[in-house]
Every structure is written in structure tokens, then in C-alpha cells.
């Protein structure tokens, strides 16, 4: 497909090709027992196992240089998919343990790697991890506040949505907002419509990671549509993790039809055996998405991107149909 793509929801560590993680493990003599299947793919059967395997894979990413190399590998993968702009979730917890000085070095390594690839533009969303708790989240928020700027443009939260409430993290989100960062959080992937209400009400985010379970609450669907709160939808991730049994039952098209602004992303593509092109192919297959819809969804993503006006204009121009 020739339409350029904009991806708003991608975890940098979760986008690591398994061979890249295995290579680092070999270099460092780290035993990654249990992380891979015999065929070399990541091994997990449910969301909690996914989170454990994810964190185990991260143990081989031990310094800024590793994250620089990871960024190059991930962006090259995205370029191959026709992605011209990507926002990656970056976690200070995996990059120096929340220490601001260490984080700065990791961030510079990623920023430098991205700057070497002119085919794609990257921004970082600093992400706290919900199951590490609100105190640890504050260290991520401080890293975000201290490095907010051209490259770090957002703050968000991932991890186990069933731990605590969104509001437990309000202090960190307030700090990030005051530092000028734009906000998103994972909600309504596992925690139902109530978790999305919490995200909107208690964290005042302008985008929602996943948000798909909003479909179960018509008043919430209306609210998202009315306030144009953008969903970062990752259908392949939802199907792979069993949030929905299959593509046919995924609510993305019903949400879109009800006027909710939806965008399409891959979340952790090698974990879920997906690519952004495959996501659009399957949206075409199951919901009849054609070029016009795909272009419109990417325009929605460009308008919702956490970037400066000049970059947004460039993205919107790239999305104009050739005349
Ligand atoms: N959900 C929540 N947290 C995550 C995910 C996800 O899909 N991927 C990486 N961290
Ligand atoms: Zn995610």
C-alpha cells in the first residue's frame, strides 16, 4: 500500500526483533531461559506471562548503546512498513532505573539513532509502568519533566491495567502536563469502560492507549466522540492477547462508525506476529477498509500526533492523495 503510515502506539522494547534480543543475550552471556519458543518466537500464553517475558527480554538491554542499536533496528522495521512518523513508548525504568542522569544518556542514544534515519520521524513518550506502582511512576515523571522537549513530547502509562486505579497516578500525570507534555494512558484494554472513564476524568489524557472496551458503554462512546478523544487501537495485539476472540468481534469499526477518532498501531509487533501493513490488510479483509478510510485514519493520527506544528504540516502534506 502506498499510503504513508503514522504509528502512535509502539513500545520500543516490545518492538525488539527476537533475534536482536537473542544476539544481545549471547554477547553478554545472559541466560534467557523461558523467553523463547523452539521456533525462536517470544513465548507467552496470556497477558501476565507476556509482561514477564517482556521484562525478562529487557534484562539484556543494559546500556545506552543497546537502546541506540534497538532504536535503529525498530525504526528500520517501521520504515519497511511505510511508516513516516512514529511515537515510541520509552521507559526510564528499563533505562537506568529512573535515575535522571542515566536516563538522559539513554535518551540521547535513542535520539541520535533516530536522527540518522531521515526516512522516518520519531518522538518519545515517557511511560511509567502501572504495576511498578505510583511512587516509581514519579521517578519516570521526573525524567519526563527534565527531558521534555523536541524529542520527548509525551507522557503515558503501560503495564498491568488491573493494578490500582488510573487516579493513583494523577500526581505524575499532573507533573508531566505542567512540564508541557501531552498525555496518553493504557485504558480499556483489560480494565473495561470504567478504566477509560477514570483515564479521562482523573488523568485528563487527550489520547487513550487501546480504549476498545469503551464499546461496552454507549455513554462513554458518545463522550469520546464528542470530545474527540483519540484511541490508539492495536487490533492484532488485542486478538493475540485474547482481549477479543477474533478479528470479526473486534470493535474498531463500530467505534469508528460511532464517530470515535481511531488510529491503528502494532503495540509490540514481534510479540504479536504482526506488522502495520498486516493490520491494515486485515482491516481491509474484515471490515472493508479501502484506501480512503486508511488515509483518513492516518490523517486522524497526524492530527493527534504529539509533535510540533511544522512536523504535523509535513505529515498532512505527505498524506494528501497524489493529484
Ligand atoms: N499493554 C500494557 N502494557 C504494555 C503493553 C500492552 O499491550 N505492551 C507493553 N507494555
Ligand atoms: Zn501498549
Essential attributes:
globular, binds hypoxanthine, binds zinc ion, 323 residues, 8-stranded parallel sheet, TIM Barrel, 13 helices, alpha/beta
How would you describe what is shown here?
InterPro entries: A_deaminase_dom, Ado/ade_deaminase, Metal_Hydrolase. Pfam families: A_deaminase. Keywords: Hydrolase, Metal-binding, Zinc. This is Adenosine deaminase. It comes from Litoreibacter ascidiaceicola. This protein is an alpha/beta fold and 323 residues long. It folds into two domains: 5-16 and 61-317, TIM Barrel; 17-57, no CATH class. Helix content is 46%, strand content 15%. It is built from 13 helices and eight strands. The protein has helices at 18-28, 47-58, 64-80, 100-115, 134-147, 170-178, 192-203, 218-226, 235-241, 252-257, 276-287, 291-304, 309-319; strands spanning 5-11, 83-90, 121-129, 152-158, 182-187, 207-210, 230-233, 262-264. An eight-stranded parallel sheet has the order 1-2-3-4-5-6-7-8, sandwiched between helices. Helix 3 runs parallel beside helix 4, helix 5 (134-147) runs parallel beside helix 6 (170-178) and helix 12 (291-304) runs antiparallel to helix 13. The protein is globular and about 50 Å long. The two termini are 17 Å apart. The relative contact order is 0.13. The mean pLDDT is 98. Residues 9, 11, 158, 186, 209, 267 line the site of zinc ion.
Amino acid at each position: 500500500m502506498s499510503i504513508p503510515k503514522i504509528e502512535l502506539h509502539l513500545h520500543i522494547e516490545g518492538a525488539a526483533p527476537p533475534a536482536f534480543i537473542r544476539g544481545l543475550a549471547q554477547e553478554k552471556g545472559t541466560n534467557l531461559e523461558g523467553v523463547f519458543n523452539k521456533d525462536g518466537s517470544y513465548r507467552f500464553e496470556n497477558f501476565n506471562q507476556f509482561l514477564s517475558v517482556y521484562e525478562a527480554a529487557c534484562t539484556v538491554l543494559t546500556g545506552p548503546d543497546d537502546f541506540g542499536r534497538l532504536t535503529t533496528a525498530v525504526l528500520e522495521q517501521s520504515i519497511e512498513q511505510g511508516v513516516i512518523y512514529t511515537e515510541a513508548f520509552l521507559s526510564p525504568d528499563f533505562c537506568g532505573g529512573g535515575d535522571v542522569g542515566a536516563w538522559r544518556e539513554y535518551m540521547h542514544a535513542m535520539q541520535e539513532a533516530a536522527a540518522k534515519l531521515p526516512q522516518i520521524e520519531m518522538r518519545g513518550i515517557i511511560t511509567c509502568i502501572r504495576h511498578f506502582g505510583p511512587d516509581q511512576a514519579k521517578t519516570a515523571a521526573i525524567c519526563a519533566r527534565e527531558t521534555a522537549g523536541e524529542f520527548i513530547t509525551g507522557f503515558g502509562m503501560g503495564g498491568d491495567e488491573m493494578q490500582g486505579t488510573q487516579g493513583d497516578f494523577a500526581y505524575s500525570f499532573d507533573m508531566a502536563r505542567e512540564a508541557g507534555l501531552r498525555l496518553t494512558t493504557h485504558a480499556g484494554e483489560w480494565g473495561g469502560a470504567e478504566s477509560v472513564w477514570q483515564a479521562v476524568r482523573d488523568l485528563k489524557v487527550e489520547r487513550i492507549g487501546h480504549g476498545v472496551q469503551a464499546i461496552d458503554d454507549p455513554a462513554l462512546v458518545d463522550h469520546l466522540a464528542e470530545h474527540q478523544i483519540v484511541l490508539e487501537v492495536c487490533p492484532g495485539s488485542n486478538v493475540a492477547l485474547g482481549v477479543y476472540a477474533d478479528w470479526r468481534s473486534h470493535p474498531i469499526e463500530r467505534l469508528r462508525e460511532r464517530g470515535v477518532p481511531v488510529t491503528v498501531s502494532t503495540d509490540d509487533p514481534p510479540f504479536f506476529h504482526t506488522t502495520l501493513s498486516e493490520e491494515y490488510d486485515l482491516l481491509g479483509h474484515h471490515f472493508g477498509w479501502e484506501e480512503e478510510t486508511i488515509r483518513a485514519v492516518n490523517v486522524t493520527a497526524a492530527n493527534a500526533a504529539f509533535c510540533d506544528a511544522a512536523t504535523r504540516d509535513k505529515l498532512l502534506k505527505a498524506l494528501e492523495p497524489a493529484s
